[in-house]
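Running this now, will post back.
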Amino acid sequence: MNLDGIIGNEDVKRAFRSMAATGRVPHALLLHENEGGGALPLVLGFIELLTGNTHYEWNTHFSFPISSGTKVSGAVKDLTCDDFSKYWRELLEANPNFLENELSAALGIEKKSGVIAVAEGKSILQKLSLSGDGYRFMVIWMPEKMNPQTANMLLKSIEEPSEQTVFILVTHSPEDVLLTISSRCQHMRVLPLSTEEVVRTLVEQRGVDPESAAEAAAYADGSVGMALQYLSGAGDAGLFQDLFTEMIGNLTDRKLEDVLEVGEALAALESRERQKAFCLFAGSRLRKIFLLQQGMEAVASIPPQEEAFYKDAAARLGKTFCRKALDILGRTARLLERNVGQKILFCNMMTRLWASV
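Update: finished.
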């Protein structure tokens, strides 16, 4: 994947070109993207720039959260990403902007939380012990899912890798990456694309008609992955928007019982990944309300059919609500990763949101 063909994030591309030109390639990079934001295409473009090769099987290893599921069974402690590599590569080839729930579906672990566990750590060390010429890359997707034991195993390799070995980590939650790992990486921010850049990507690279691309871009909040899922009709966009609309309406109308019912509906979603996805969705919608409250309607990218709702919410909610609510949603998403009971968690979330209005 050529960097020149990737739309947006010119600063990141410029930095990668400089690294390649000077030969000053960091031993460990941590790229922070919003989900579906395009970090993996940039990583693949960087690897191609350094090696001149578009095939990654011989010099690039991918690590990602896994669990036992419908496609690969067995004890989680014995599984590695090699067991899932076929499904990973198929998804990566079809859509390198994939979302977390799309990877879970591809791996057959929709109802489970994946983890980068000790068996995978041993597998990474074994791969790095093999000799070879030229650059070698270890791409770790969602290192925030790495447990402490695995992190300790990899620490020395990340801090002092063998010559021309490069670790590239892609995270959606840099604050959740273990400090021992994060502190040894050079951090780079992959920014959300503008609405116009999302439209261009969809039209020029995916063959989407301009009208549909504009509609998807208004929904996607700068994420090509979100836009593609919206166009596929396979995601939860409609359900999440309905739940968000109901939640905000009940909060502004001060209907506590109805607010708690929305919490029960969220607790009843079939997986923690979908519940976490709602928290991310709601956060992106709260940012639109915040932008309206700041008089920045032009950059809020609100679909015309939802304009009345967002303008009403912006007028009725207090100026500090969005900031407080984003903290509450972020905390809820993090606790979902720790297997806190969903009913208790969403009841707590709703009562805290209620108190913040």
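The first helix runs from residue 10 to 22. More later if anyone needs it.
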